[in-house]
């Protein structure tokens, strides 16, 4: 049979991109991932390599200097990168979400000004919805922007901003008073352009420092504090206030396919490590892969890798076709992240005591997999989205 997680019907261009990325992952990411991760070191050289390959512009339309590739290509690239090291996929994920939001919702001026520089990686995107007191309940956002003439004044605190310090463009969802009845209709996305770095980076805008995390190291995750921060009304995404929730939810659908792709990448790597180790390690006179209990684990792990990959590809294709894909993206994210946690856990068990040693890659994957159960909406939130969609589609006629 073919190797796991193959995708039928790819174009020559897609195949060439994937083969280049796979080669980069094998040569430039996997050999360095353990050291960089254990040191919580930002992967500067890897990021430069990705810039050179044009990966920051992968989905940016050609008219703005990008490669104009589909969400499917992007998802397959992310799967390859996460197979090497999830943190590297974290560097580009928020960038793609912001590029997507700009491409579909930005004003012509915003697109013209930002997308060409996003394509080269000169402008690097992050997105911010979560706050210290809320993550799932986005409509409850408290950070507020008050209009004063042609400007807005923003006050409040944001939490869990991936690439907070290393980005220079943050799409931030805040509350504006549009007088709408529903809370989510009073939310607006601002495009905050800021310098990279930590501390008070602009008057009224601070990035206190990196949050110390269990895994997903190297990439910076930060708070973002607004204290009387002034920004022009022209920085509103799309130019019109009150549309931010819709913009962000569109971006998050891209993010969910991305998280599913990352989960597939980690699960593939966990399987690769397990299947190799199981043929090397001997107990009771034979390789452990020849004990049926271990062979069956490998069979179940590989089946989960395949199922997750197919669901992820399906969700990406649907979004590319322009169809609503909230249910499929939710399903793909749900199953891929849950399977990833299970496959990683099984690979860890197959490694016996060595899985607990920092010398072995599986130790890192064990700390990375749980994040995927949370990021871009927890499994409970995915089930809420999926069940709502199903009840809409299968409405009772009784
Ligand atoms: C490393 C990292 C990076 C992140 N990066 C970003 C980023 O770049 N930008 C950003 O905006 N956010 C980011 N986040 C935030 C992330 O999106 C949130 O943590 C996530 O949405 C969950 O929100 P919460 O932590 O507030 O949990 P809560 O919403 O408080 O949920 C707590 C628990 O309650 C459950 N729960 C909540 N509501 C319901 C319900 N209605 N029904 C059933 N169960 C429910 C949840 O599933 C969860 O188990 C990041 C988080 C982490 C850990």
UniProtKB/TrEMBL annotation:
InterPro entries: Acyl-CoA_Oxase/DH_mid-dom, Acyl-CoA_Oxase/DH_mid-dom_sf, AcylCo_DH-like_C, AcylCo_DH/oxidase_C, AcylCoA_DH/ox_N, AcylCoA_DH/ox_N_sf, AcylCoA_DH/oxidase_NM_dom_sf
Cofactor: FAD
Gene Ontology molecular function: acyl-CoA dehydrogenase activity; flavin adenine dinucleotide binding
Acyl-CoA oxidase/dehydrogenase middle domain segment(s): 126-227
Keywords on record: FAD, Flavoprotein, Oxidoreductase
Residues covered by the Acyl-CoA dehydrogenase/oxidase N-terminal domain: 11-122
Pfam families hit by this protein: Acyl-CoA_dh_1, Acyl-CoA_dh_M, Acyl-CoA_dh_N
Record domain Acyl-CoA dehydrogenase/oxidase C-terminal: where: 242-391
Keyword Coiled coil: no
UniProt record similarity statement: Belongs to the acyl-CoA dehydrogenase family.
PANTHER family to which the protein is assigned, alphabetical: ACYL-COA DEHYDROGENASE, ISOVALERYL-COA DEHYDROGENASE, MITOCHONDRIAL-RELATED
Name the UniProt record assigns to this protein: Acyl-CoA dehydrogenase
Native source species: Gandjariella thermophila
Higher taxonomy: Bacteria, Bacillati, Actinomycetota, Actinomycetes, Pseudonocardiales
């Amino acid at each position: 049979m073919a190797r796991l997680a193959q995708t039928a019907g790819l174009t020559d261009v897609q195949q060439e991109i994937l083969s280049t990325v796979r080669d980069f992952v094998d040569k430039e990411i996997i050999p360095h991932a353990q050291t960089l991760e254990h040191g919580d070191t930002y992967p500067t050289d890897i990021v430069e390599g990705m810039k050179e390959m044009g990966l920051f512009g992968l989905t940016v339309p050609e008219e703005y200097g990008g490669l104009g590739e589909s969400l499917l290509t992007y998802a397959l690239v992310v799967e390859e990168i996460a197979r090497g090291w999830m943190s590297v996929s974290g560097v580009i994920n928020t960038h793609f979400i912001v590029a997507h939001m700009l491409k579909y919702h930005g004003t012509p001026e915003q697109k013209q000004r930002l997308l060409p520089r996003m394509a080269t990686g000169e402008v690097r995107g992050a997105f911010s919805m979560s706050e210290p007191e809320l993550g799932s309940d986005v409509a409850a956002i408290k950070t507020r922007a008050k209009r004063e003439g042609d400007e807005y004044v923003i006050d409040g605190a944001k939490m869990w901003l991936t690439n907070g310090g290393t980005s220079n463009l943050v799409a931030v969802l805040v509350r504006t008073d549009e007088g709408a009845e529903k809370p989510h209709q009073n939310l607006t996305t601002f495009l905050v352009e800021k310098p990279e770095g930590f501390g008070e980076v602009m008057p009224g805008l601070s990035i206190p420092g990196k949050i110390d995390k269990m895994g997903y190291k190297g990439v910076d995750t930060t708070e973002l504090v607004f204290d009387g921060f002034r920004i022009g009304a022209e920085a509103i995404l799309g130019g019109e206030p009150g549309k931010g929730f819709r913009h962000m939810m569109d971006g998050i659908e891209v993010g969910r396919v991305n998280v599913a792709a990352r989960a597939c990448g980690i699960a593939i790597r966990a399987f690769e490590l397990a299947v190799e180790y199981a043929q090397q390690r001997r107990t009771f006179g034979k390789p452990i892969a020849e004990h049926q209990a271990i062979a069956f684990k490998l069979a179940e792990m590989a089946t989960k890798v395949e199922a997750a990959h197919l669901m992820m590809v399906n969700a990406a294709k649907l979004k590319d076709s322009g169809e609503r894909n909230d249910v499929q993206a939710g399903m793909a994210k749900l199953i891929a992240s849950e399977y990833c946690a299970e496959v990683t856990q099984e690979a860890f068990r197959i490694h016996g005591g060595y899985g607990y040693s920092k010398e072995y890659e599986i130790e890192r994957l064990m700390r990375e997999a749980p994040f995927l159960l949370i990021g871009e909406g927890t499994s409970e939130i995915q089930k809420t989205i999926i069940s709502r969609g199903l009840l809409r589609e299968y409405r009772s006629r009784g």
